[in-house]
Amino acid sequence: MEKEDNIEETEAKLLQALAAQTPVEEYSVKEGSPLKEGEKKATKEQIVEALRTVCDPEIMINIYDLGLVYEIRQIDNGDVEVDMTLTAPTCPVAGILPKQAAEVVAALDGVGVATINLVWEPAWSPERLTEEAKAILEMY
């Protein structure tokens, strides 16, 4: 009887663990190194185009057109800060997409340190999709 109680208790704990969906906390990822003084800075358009090379692997639409990028800030020294989110706090690529975004932005000529801040406010919604993404997803 004791063995059956242990099995039931273990199963109950496993079910609780599976049901618990702890949201990913806000965090930042940094890539790159400071620009040399006097080096020409990248344009915002170049940064946007770089971010468009990072795709959500589940639906193969880039993070910019998905509306995951909330804000791009260019600092006077050439550093770039990007606030972005994910479609859901339990997104399985939470640790991958911000790192990829930081890498592609930092790789641009004219960008020093790229910081990607993963944020959850405001929450993402389908209204954030660009017209291009809506067309791909056939959301008219």
Low-pLDDT runs of 5+ residues are 17-22
Helicity range of the residues?
25-40%
What's the total helix number? 4
Strand % is 15-25%
Counting copies of identical and different chains, the oligomeric state is single chain
Report on the structure:
By secondary structure, the chain is an alpha+beta fold. The protein has one domain: GMP Synthetase, Chain A, domain 3, CATH 3.30.300.130. It has helices at residues 2-19, 44-51, 97-106, 131-136, and strands at residues 27-31, 69-74, 80-84, 114-118. Strands 1-4-3-2 form a 4-stranded mixed β-sheet. Strand 3, helix 3 (97-106) and strand 4 (114-118) form a beta-alpha-beta unit.
What features would you highlight for this structure?
140 residues; alpha+beta; GMP Synthetase, Chain A, domain 3; single chain
